[in-house]
C-alpha cells in the first residue's frame, strides 16, 4: 500500500552528537560501492551479512515538484499505478509475489522524489530485480483506462482520509498556496488538487512516465546479504537493456520572499480547538543556513528551556505544547511555528505570545550548552537510522539523488557539528526577525472570533457529498504489445532455498526483588534498547477517576526529587539518550534507547525517575490541561470516535476496556495529585514488572546496570482487577454515529473473541490472513483494488490475557458506505465456505518465509522479549507458531472460520454523515439499527437532523 510521504532518513534531521565524541562521530560512515550502467542507472551496493535478507530501493528524481499547474498529483498517482501490473507481471501481483516470498514492499512520494522498496529473504533477490525492472522498462503499455480509473479513486480516497476528514487537514494547502507563488513547484500539495485528479487522463500519465521514470533518472540501492559479482550480473541482466528516456535537468534553486504578511482563516469541520501556524520562507537543503535553522527550531520550541514553551505554556497557559521547525527541501525551504490552542484560547493572543517569546530569545541568547544539547544525540540517532538494511538503503539513495554522493553522510555530520550559536542568531535575524510571514488560523465551526486579527477567509475547497455512481470503463480487447527483451521476462525467476528459521539466543532471570529480566545480545551496533513493563496500567484505574494511570506516566517524566523538569530533560539529552513513559490498557511502560557506553548513566536516571518522583504541582496542572484539550480535540476525529464507541459497544460500561486510557473530560478534571500518589504507592512494584534489554552487551553487564534498581526497589503485593467479559451478542446490530459532512465513513465490524493466550488465537490469526490480514486480503482487493472505495481495508484478531476482538475495518468514501458494509458482511460469510489450496499456500509462504526478516533490528528483538514476558512464552515460541502455520489444512482453516466468524452476530459500527447515509440501513436486513452519540448512548431518531 503506497503512502504519501516516505520516511526517508536524513542525517540532518535524524542525528545529533555529543561534543566530546565529535572526532569519533565524524568518522562514521556506511561502506558502499557505486557505479553506473550504460543507460544511466546509478547503482549503489552495500553489503550487510548480519541477517539473511536484502533490501532494494529505487529512488526516482521525480516528485510533485516536477508537475505543472492543472496537472498536479501525477507523481503520487503514478506511484500507485506502478503497483498495478506491468507487461510481464499480472494485475495485483506485485504485492502478492513479494508477500509470497516472505517479503514486504511499499513506495512513497514527496515534493522532491519517489521511492519504491522491497525487503525480502536473500533467496528472493532476483524476484525483486525482475519486478522492479519490469515496471521501470516494461509497464506503460499496460496502463489501461480501467486500471487508471481505479487508482484515481484510491488516491482520492487517500486525500479524503489524510486531509478532508482530519482536523486541520487543509492547513498545508493554505500555507503552500500563499508562501510559494503560482507556478512554483511547491505551490501545490503532493496529493494534488481533487479536480486535477478527477480530470487526469491516461495520455497525461503516459507522458509523465515517459519523461521521468527512465533508468537515467533513477538510483538503485541494494543492501544486505548478497554476493557482489552475482548481484552485479543480475542488475545488468534485468536493468541493463532498459533504454534511456528523456534527459531530466536538475531543478534550479527557487527560494522565495514575501513582500508582506498574509493572514488567513478557515472554519474547520473537525476542529474543536483553534490552531495557529506562522510560516517564513527560508533556504534549500544542505546549505549552511539550513543546518542553523534546524537548530533554531529546536531552541525556540523544544523542552522546558525553550522561549515558546516558557511564554505560551508556562506563563500564559495558552497552549500545552509548542512546535517550531525548519524544512529545507531540494529547491526552497520554510520555517514554521505550529501552536494548537487550549480550549477557548484566542489565536490573536498566541500570535502576540510568539513575538514575546522571540523577544525573550533575543534577550536570553544561546549558550554553548544549548548547542551541545542539540548535538548530543547525533551518534545514537545515526546508529538508529542504519539499524535496518532498509534504513541504509534509504539513506544511500537520498544522498546520491540530492547530494550526488552516497557518502555525503560524512559531510552531513560535519556540517551539523560546525553549527555555532552565532550561526543560529544570524539565521534568526536573516529569515525570521521582523520578516513577513504567512499566518493561518484554523478554528472550530462558528468560532471565528478565535482567529488571529485581520484574517481573510482561505479559499479552501470542500468536496460535496454526492450520490455514488459507478463508472463502467471498457478497455480495449486488444492484446497488450510487449516491449522486446533479450530473455523471456514472462517467466518469474526461481527463488532458491529459503533461509532456515534462526531464533536469536536469549536469556532470562529473576532478580532478588522479584523483577523478571529478559535479554538478547546483538553486537551489530553500539546501542542498547530496553523496556520496563509494569503490569496493571489502565486496568488499575477506578471508574470514577479513569485516566489516573495515564496522568501518572506523564507526571513521572517531569523531574525527580533532586532534579527539576528542566534539569532531568537536559541530562537525558546530554547523554544522547531517550527515555519515555506511557500507559497501555494493561501496563505502564518505561522505554529507553542509548549508547552502550552510556547505559549505566541512563539507567541511573531511570532509577531516579522510578523511585524518586517529584510530584511537581505546576507540571501536574499543565498535564491535566493538555490531557483535557487532547480529549476534546479527539472527540471530533472520526477514527478516535470509532475506537471509543466500538469498545463501549462490545465491552459494555462495566469493563475498563470500554473507556479510553486518557479518561474523559469529567474524570480527568476530578483527578488530584494525591490520586496519582496513591496509585503509585499501591501499584508500582517489581513483583509485577518485567525488564527487557537488547544490545551490544552480555547478561553480566546488563544485570550490573540493574543492581541499584534491584537493591533499592522493594517488592509489594499488587492485585490487578479482573472484569467479567459478557459475550452474549446474538444479533447483527447496525450502529451509526453522526459526524456531519464527513467526507469518509469509518467502519468497524466485529465482536468479542478470545485472549492471546487461547490455544486457538494464533491459528485463527493465520486463518484470517487471506481475509484481511494483508494488502492481498480479500476485503482490500475488493474494496480498494476492484471498487476504489477506500485507501485500505483490513481484518484481524486482537487479544491479550483478556479476551479481545475480531474486527474488520476501513475508511470509505462517504457515498459508498452502505455498499462497503455489505461487501464486508458478504465476504465474511463467504470466507466460511473455505479457501483454495493456492490461497492456503500463499498464506503459509507469506507468514513462514517472512520470519527471515523478523529478527533484524533491536526494536524487533525487544518486541519478541516483551511477548515472551507478557505471556510466559518459551524462547522458541516462534518455531512452534511456524509449525502451526505449516501444519494447517484446508479443513482446519474452514473450521476456524466457522467457529470465530459469524457475521449474523456482529456489531456493525459506522461513523459518518447521517444526513446522506443513515436512511439506507433501516431496511437492509439488520436485526436492529440504532443511532448512537459519541459516548455510545442511544439517540432518538426524532432528535437527528436529516
Automatic annotation (TrEMBL):
> Residues in domain Peptidase M16 C-terminal?
200-378, 670-847
Peptidase M16 N-terminal domain sequence ranges: 43-167, 526-649
SUPFAM superfamilies given in the database record: LuxS/MPP-like metallohydrolase
Q: Which domain of life is it from?
A: Bacteria
Gene3D superfamilies the record matches: Metalloenzyme, LuxS/M16 peptidase-like
**InterPro entries noted in UniProt:** Metalloenz_LuxS/M16, Pept_M16_N, Peptidase_M16, Peptidase_M16_C
UniProt keyword list: Hydrolase, Metalloprotease, Protease, Zinc
Instruction: Name the family.
Output: Belongs to the peptidase M16 family.
**Protein name in UniProt:** Pitrilysin family protein
**Native source species:** Aquimarina litoralis
Source species taxonomy: Bacteria, Pseudomonadati, Bacteroidota, Flavobacteriia, Flavobacteriales
Amino acid at each position: 500500500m503506497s503512502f504519501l510521504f516516505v520516511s526517508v532518513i536524513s542525517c540532518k534531521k535524524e542525528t545529533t552528537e555529543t561534543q566530546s565524541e565529535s572526532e569519533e562521530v565524524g568518522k562514521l560512515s556506511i561502506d558502499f560501492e557505486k557505479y553506473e550502467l550504460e543507460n544511466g542507472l546509478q547503482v549503489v551496493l552495500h553489503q550487510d551479512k548480519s541477517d539473511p535478507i536484502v533490501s532494494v530501493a529505487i529512488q526516482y528524481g521525480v516528485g510533485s515538484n516536477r508537475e505543472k499547474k492543472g496537472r498536479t498529483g501525477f507523481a503520487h498517482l503514478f506511484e500507485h499505478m506502478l503497483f498495478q501490473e506491468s507487461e510481464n507481471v499480472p494485475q495485483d501481483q506485485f504485492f502478492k509475489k513479494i508477500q509470497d516470498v516472505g517479503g514486504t514492499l511499499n513506495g512513497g512520494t514527496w515534493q522532491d522524489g519517489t521511492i519504491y522498496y522491497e525487503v525480502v529473504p536473500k533467496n528472493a533477490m532476483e524476484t525483486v530485480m525482475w519486478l522492479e525492472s519490469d515496471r521501470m522498462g516494461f509497464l506503460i503499455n499496460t496502463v489501461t483506462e480501467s486500471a487508471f480509473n481505479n487508482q484515481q479513486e484510491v488516491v482520492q480516497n487517500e486525500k479524503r482520509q489524510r486531509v478532508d476528514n482530519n482536523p486541520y487537514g487543509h492547513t498545508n494547502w493554505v500555507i503552500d498556496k500563499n508562501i510559494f507563488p503560482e507556478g512554483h513547484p511547491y505551490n501545490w500539495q503532493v496529493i494534488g488538487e481533487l479536480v486535477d485528479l478527477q480530470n487526469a487522463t491516461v495520455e497525461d500519465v503516459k507522458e509523465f512516465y515517459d519523461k521521468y521514470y527512465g533508468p537515467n533518472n533513477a538510483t538503485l540501492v541494494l543492501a544486505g546479504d548478497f554476493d557482489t559479482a552475482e548481484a552485479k550480473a543480475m542488475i545488468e541482466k534485468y536493468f541493463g537493456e532498459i533504454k534511456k528516456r528523456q534527459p531530466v535537468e536538475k531543478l534550479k534553486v527557487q527560494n522565495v520572499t514575501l513582500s508582506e504578511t498574509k493572514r488567513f482563516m478557515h472554519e474547520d469541520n473537525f476542529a474543536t480547538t483553534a490552531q495557529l501556524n506562522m510560516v517564513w520562507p527560508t533556504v534549500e537543503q544542505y546549505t549552511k543556513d539550513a543546518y542553523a535553522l534546524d537548530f533554531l527550531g529546536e531552541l525556540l520550541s523544544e523542552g522546558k528551556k525553550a522561549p515558546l514553551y516558557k511564554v505560551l505554556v508556562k506563563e500564559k497557559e495558552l497552549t500545552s505544547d509548542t512546535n517550531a521547525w525548519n524544512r529545507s527541501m531540494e529547491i526552497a525551504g520554510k520555517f514554521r511555528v505550529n501552536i494548537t490552542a487550549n480550549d477557548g484560547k484566542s489565536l490573536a493572543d498566541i500570535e502576540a505570545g510568539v513575538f514575546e517569546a522571540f523577544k525573550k530569545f533575543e534577550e536570553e541568547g544561546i549558550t554553548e550548552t544549548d548547542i551541545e544539547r542539540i548535538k548530543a544525540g547525533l551518534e545514537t540517532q545515526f546508529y538508529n537510522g542504519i539499524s535496518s538494511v532498509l534504513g541504509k538503503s534509504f539513506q544511500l539513495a537520498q544522498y546520491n539523488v540530492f547530494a550526488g554522493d552516497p557518502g555525503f553522510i560524512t559531510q552531513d555530520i560535519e556540517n551539523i557539528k560546525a553549527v555555532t550559536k552565532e550561526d543560529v542568531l544570524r539565521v534568526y535575524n536573516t529569515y525570521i526577525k521582523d520578516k513577513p510571514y504567512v499566518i493561518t488560523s484554523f478554528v472550530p465551526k462558528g468560532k471565528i472570533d478565535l482567529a488571529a486579527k485581520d484574517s481573510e477567509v482561505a479559499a479552501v475547497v470542500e468536496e460535496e457529498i454526492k450520490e455514488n455512481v459507478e463508472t463502467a470503463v471498457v478497455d480495449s480487447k486488444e492484446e497488450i504489445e510487449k516491449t522486446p527483451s533479450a530473455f523471456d521476462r514472462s517467466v518469474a525467476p526461481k527463488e532458491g532455498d529459503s533461509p532456515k528459521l534462526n531464533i536469536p539466543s536469549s536469556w532470562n532471570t529473576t532478580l532478588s526483588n522479584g523483577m523478571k529480566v529478559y535479554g538478547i545480545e546483538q553486537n551489530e551496533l553500539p546501542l542498547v534498547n530496553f523496556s520496563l513493563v509494569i503490569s496493571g496500567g489502565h486496568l488499575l484505574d477506578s471508574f470514577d477517576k479513569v485516566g489516573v494511570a495515564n496522568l501518572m506516566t506523564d507526571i513521572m517524566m517531569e523531574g525527580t526529587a533532586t532534579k527539576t523538569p528542566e534539569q532531568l530533560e537536559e541530562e537525558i539529552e546530554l547523554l544522547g539518550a531517550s527515555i519515555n513513559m506511557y500507559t497501555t490498557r494493561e501496563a505502564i511502560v518505561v522505554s529507553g534507547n542509548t549508547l552502550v557506553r552510556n547505559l549505566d548513566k541512563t539507567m541511573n536516571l531511570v532509577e531516579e525517575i522510578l523511585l524518586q518522583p517529584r510530584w511537581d504541582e505546576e507540571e501536574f496542572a499543565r498535564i491535566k490541561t493538555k490531557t483535557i484539550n487532547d480529549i476534546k480535540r479527539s472527540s471530533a476525529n472520526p477514527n478516535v470516535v470509532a475506537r471509543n464507541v466500538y469498545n463501549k459497544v462490545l465491552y459494555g460500561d462495566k469493563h475498563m476496556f470500554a473507556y479510553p486510557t486518557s479518561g474523559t473530560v469529567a474524570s480527568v478534571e476530578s483527578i488530584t495529585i494525591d490520586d496519582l500518589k496513591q496509585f503509585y504507592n499501591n501499584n508500582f512494584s517489581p513483583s509485577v514488572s518485567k525488564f527487557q534489554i537488547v544490545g551490544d552487551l552480555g547478561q553480566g553487564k546488563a544485570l550490573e546496570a540493574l543492581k541499584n534498581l534491584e537493591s533499592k526497589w522493594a517488592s509489594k503485593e499488587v492485585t490487578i482487577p479482573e472484569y467479567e467479559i459478557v459475550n452474549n451478542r446474538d444479533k447483527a446490530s447496525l450502529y451509526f454515529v453522526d459526524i456531519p459532512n464527513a467526507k469518509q465513513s469509518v467502519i468497524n465490524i466485529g465482536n468479542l473473541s478470545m485472549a492471546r493466550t487461547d490455544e486457538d488465537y494464533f491459528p485463527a490469526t493465520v486463518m484470517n490472513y487471506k481475509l484481511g490480514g494483508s494488502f492481498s486480503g480479500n476485503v482490500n482487493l475488493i474494496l480498494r483494488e476492484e471498487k476504489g472505495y477506500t485507501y485500505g481495508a483490513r481484518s484481524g484478531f486482537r487479544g491479550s490475557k483478556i479476551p479481545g476482538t475480531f474486527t474488520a475495518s476501513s475508511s470509505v468514501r462517504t457515498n459508498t458506505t452502505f455498499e462497503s458494509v455489505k461487501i464486508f458482511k458478504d465476504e465474511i460469510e463467504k470466507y466460511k465456505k473455505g479457501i483454495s489450496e493456492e490461497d492456503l499456500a500463499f498464506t503459509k509462504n507469506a507468514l513462514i518465509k517472512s520470519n527471515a526478516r523478523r529478527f533484524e533490528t533491536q526494536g524487533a528483538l525487544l518486541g519478541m522479549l516483551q511477548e515472551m514476558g507478557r505471556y510466559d512464552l518459551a524462547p522458541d515460541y516462534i518455531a512452534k507458531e511456524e509449525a502451526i502455520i505449516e501444519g494447517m489444512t484446508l479443513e482446519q482453516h474452514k473450521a476456524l472460520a466457522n467457529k470465530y466468524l459469524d457475521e449474523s452476530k456482529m456489531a456493525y459500527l459506522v461513523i459518518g454523515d447521517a444526513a446522506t447515509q443513515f436512511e439506507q440501513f433501516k431496511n437492509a436486513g439488520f436485526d436492529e439499527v440504532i443511532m448512537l452519540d459519541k459516548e455510545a448512548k442511544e439517540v432518538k431518531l426524532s432528535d437527528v437532523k436529516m
